[in-house]
Amino acid sequence: xxxxxxxxTDKMLRLWDVxxxxxxxxATAINFALNPVAISPDFHWVLSGSRDGSTDVWDxxxxxxxxxxxxxxxxxxxxxxSPVGYYLAVGLHSGYVSLWRYEQxxx
Length: 107
Description:
The protein is an all-beta fold. It is 0% helix and 52% strand. The model has no long low-confidence stretch (mean pLDDT 83).
């Protein structure tokens, strides 16, 4: 693994390079504190969930938010990428799990 991602209660998403221990990126969420995060198998994307039900996709190369997955009606408590990198899973506090399809070359 090349990166470690962490979401904080001050609405920050931080990304560190594992080899050097250096902070390589910061991003700020707009609405609510971020909860879970996951890094894609190709290390290109970071997925973050929030208490307001939003799930954001961030580019690790430039720290820019690429899109928001909408439609969740409960707090996001877990997010992950499938090992082969074609699906995103979003687990909600309500007990539901939603699956989203994506391609490794783009969302």
